[in-house]
Amino acid sequence: MTELPREIIEHYRSIDEGARLTGAVGRLEFLRTQEIVRRHLPAGSLRVLDIGGATGVHAAWLAADGHRVALFDIVDDFRRRTLGAALAAGEQVEWFVLYTEANVEIDITAADALREICVELRRHGITFALARVKQELREDLAAAGLLELMGAGYLYPTLPSVVEAFRRRGKSGTGKERKSGMNDVQSTPAVLEQDQEEPS
């Protein structure tokens, strides 16, 4: 593969494309893209390859529409952004939750990145959990040894179920309590999600 020019990599590392597209400046572009793509996609559930998908802002709504989406981006910045978001708040973060509804499968590179994130967060005393994990993704996680590393008890079907588990941490066998001296009012789980509301 031809190496991507450094200026392109630095450009996309310097901005949050998901926030840009869903914020005031890029909202019209985001909605127009949805309208065009939906108009031209064939009916039914499709397998979609989102090339250059960045943080998954388009993969999220495509998955919500019922498609199986695989995201690829040559700017491998997921690990840095994830750890940066989790560690920036310091002692205030006890759990870090990755919202995975847009992800139905992972490759070896993604599995390695998740493994590194899990290990690094644990080193800082932070619990790593996944929300909205679909069966296909769960199977890939198991095959990569990530279920054994994380613990199947840290995969949750919804964001509310994660919040409930966080509130019950230390009171049952399902959650770990970090010895930080902080209470439930002072600390909440940090959630990295794909700019998508939880279905009602």
TrEMBL record:
<keyword id="KW-0812">Transmembrane</keyword>
<feature type="region of interest" description="Disordered">
    <location>
        <begin position="170"/>
        <end position="200"/>
    </location>
</feature>
<keyword id="KW-0472">Membrane</keyword>
<feature type="domain" description="STAS">
    <location>
        <begin position="80"/>
        <end position="166"/>
    </location>
</feature>
<dbReference type="InterPro" id="IPR036513">
    <property type="entry name" value="STAS_dom_sf"/>
</dbReference>
<dbReference type="Pfam" id="PF01740">
    <property type="entry name" value="STAS"/>
</dbReference>
<protein>
    <submittedName>
        <fullName>Putative sulfate-transport transmembrane protein ABC transporter</fullName>
    </submittedName>
</protein>
<dbReference type="InterPro" id="IPR029063">
    <property type="entry name" value="SAM-dependent_MTases_sf"/>
</dbReference>
<dbReference type="InterPro" id="IPR002645">
    <property type="entry name" value="STAS_dom"/>
</dbReference>
